[in-house]
Amino acid sequence: MTSKQPKYEYVSSARLPTRFGNFTIHGFVEASGQEHVALSYGQWEAGDTVPIRIHSECLTGDALFSTRCDCGFQLEKALQNIVEHGRGVLLYLRQEGRGIGLLNKIRAYNLQDSGMDTVEANEHLGFDADLRSYDICQLMLDTLTVSKVELMTNNPRKLDALKQLGIDVVARRPIDHGITKDNKLYLKTKTEKLGHAFDPHLFK
């Protein structure tokens, strides 16, 4: 009788020097084969409160420097915040385009160029506005001995997801960073339709 493959599995860790500081990268994989990573910085004891950021992959923003979203800006700001604080974790989840994938995100961008907002575009393609899952965060944080966090996010779904996983979220820290003329409407839509906690004065 074969044992059931775990839904999520820790793979390995290695040193990862970056221009922000010296991190350790930790690899994780789902039973489906999808891979994710966590970046940790500094030291802590079990039970300490640790600053974290859950960041969903955005090739266009993170790697290609697009200004039509705030993802790349927020990724850099989160890493800077972690180093300035002296410790922290960034969970980098491979779920592009709020879970619809890279090519579908490009299709959604095309629809947005034609006048739809980000939610309308996803729904026009037959997807929900947000298909992301955060279940793997529990294994990632357990592996890093983190149970209490300060969460850097504007997204209330991330806050609720961690609480449902049994993670003690002691505070939410806003990360209002990277608002440009190209993404103001996009961020305004996320605030009004998806409940993201941006200050409305930022869009004036």
TrEMBL record:
| Enzyme Commission designation | 3.5.4.25
Q: State the Gene Ontology BP annotations.
A: riboflavin biosynthetic process
Q: What does it catalyze? A: GTP + 4 H2O = 2,5-diamino-6-hydroxy-4-(5-phosphoribosylamino)-pyrimidine + formate + 2 phosphate + 3 H(+)
Q: Which cofactor does it need?
A: Zn(2+)
Q: Which residues bind GTP?
A: R53, I54, H55, S56, E57, Q74, E96, G97, R98, T118, T153, K158
Q: Where does Zn(2+) bind?
A: C58, C69, C71
* Keywords of the record: GTP-binding, Hydrolase, Metal-binding, Nucleotide-binding, Riboflavin biosynthesis, Zinc
GO MF entries? GTP binding; GTP cyclohydrolase II activity; zinc ion binding
Q: Where is the GTP cyclohydrolase II domain positioned along the sequence?
A: 12-174
What positions does UniProt annotate as the active site of this protein? D130, R132
One GO term of the cellular component aspect?
A: cytosol
Q: How is the cofactor bound?
A: Binds 1 zinc ion per subunit.
InterPro entries in UniProt: GTP_cyclohydro_II (IPR032677), RibA (IPR000926), RibA-like_sf (IPR036144)
Q: Does the keyword DNA damage apply?
A: no
Q: What does this protein do?
A: Catalyzes the conversion of GTP to 2,5-diamino-6-ribosylamino-4(3H)-pyrimidinone 5'-phosphate (DARP), formate and pyrophosphate.
Family, per entry:
Belongs to the GTP cyclohydrolase II family.
Q: What is this protein called?
A: GTP cyclohydrolase-2
The species is Salinimonas sediminis
> What is the phylogenetic placement of the source species in the record?
Bacteria, Pseudomonadati, Pseudomonadota, Gammaproteobacteria, Alteromonadales
* UniProt gene name: ribA
